[in-house]
Amino acid sequence: MIDQKRYVTLGNLPQKIHVKGDETKPLLLFLHGGPGVCNRHTVMTTHADLQRDFLVVAWDQRGSGGSYKGAKPETLTIDRLVEDARELVAWLCREYRRKKVYLLGGSWGSQLGTLLAYRYPEQVAAYVGFGQVVNGAENERLSYAFALQQAKKAGDTAAIRKLKRVGPPENGVYKGGFEGMMTQRRVMMKYGGYSQSKAKRSYFSSMVVPMLFSGEYSPADLIGVAKGYKYVLTAMWPQVGASDLARDCREFRVPYFIFDGVLDQNTPAALVQAYFDGITAPKKELIWFEHSGHNPMTDEPERFKSLLRDRLLTLEKEDPTT
């Protein structure tokens, strides 16, 4: 078994990764969301059982967590993070003697993974996404409309007032930037748009508390988590809001899977089917999780991991050279 926390220089910036699992198993790279929301503890502790079937790699992306220090704002771009990911995949293949790596990306990580699989398929064995991003501007329009509609339905005058003060997003960007988006996200989460199973969940209870008690992060990592979240989101969100994968990424040369929650209003599920229908890939599959919101890996973990193992290990048997 391997259990290594180390730095890899990507795009001239040392970035932290954690590699854990059986070295003989397929290599699975986890791409976290945000951008800037480092959560490697989820695959290293909450879902540690994946390490029986995969050599799991969790990466703190540029500007977040253990990769916060030295990340200049001008380098926080979609293209730079895709290049970082490409360099990381190439390094992993060299270091662990692989030809290809499997990708698992959630939320922003689904956008990063899609772009990586589309632009650089040579060392990608397959892509699996959840909380799938499709179109930044339409994503935020629908998410804002859901939050406002639910607040009105509940007679929540305080939430209505806050949302109207922020106003509908323009090109995916909220008035007030980061704070405006957080206002919308808090109302959306309050009314179950993130997870129906925990309708009252907050960013603090769902993200901060698990990080603190996971034992996964050093004190310096936690400082990077706290500072990097706002730093990276603020720098990158205008680009994310302007993105459109349905326009830019339609023909894939690797197997492409989406595991999506029907109830997701964070990256609205309503956008996913049309995108999936419009893409081509050697193998593609869209699997719906009827009881899940933005993160079916958390809402329906056993079904999610069972399907993940089945789809990826089946591919591995078909092409064991990866």
Descriptive account of the structure:
The chain is of the alpha/beta class. The chain is built from 12 helices and 8 strands. It has helices spanning 41-46, 78-95, 108-119, 136-153, 157-166, 178-190, 203-214, 219-241, 245-248, 272-278, 296-299, 301-318, and strands at 2-10, 13-21, 27-31, 55-59, 101-106, 124-130, 256-261, 284-289. The chain has an 8-stranded mixed sheet with strand order 1-2-4-3-5-6-7-8, with helices on both faces.
Task: Describe the structure using short key phrases.
322 residues, alpha/beta, 12 helices, 45% helix, globular
Mean pLDDT: 94
* Biggest β-sheet description: 8 strands, mixed
List the helices and strands in order. Answer: EEEHEHEHEHHHHHHEHEHH
**Low confidence ranges:** none
The counted number of beta strands is 8
- What is the number of helical segments per DSSP (H or I, 4+ residues)? 12
Radius of gyration: 19 Å
**Helix coverage percent:** 40-55%
Q: β content, as a range?
A: 15-25%
List strands and helices in order, with pairings.
Layout: E1 2-10, E2 13-21, E3 27-31, H1 41-46, E4 55-59, H2 78-95, E5 101-106, H3 108-119, E6 124-130, H4 136-153, H5 157-166, H6 178-190, H7 203-214, H8 219-241, H9 245-248, E7 256-261, H10 272-278, E8 284-289, H11 296-299, H12 301-318
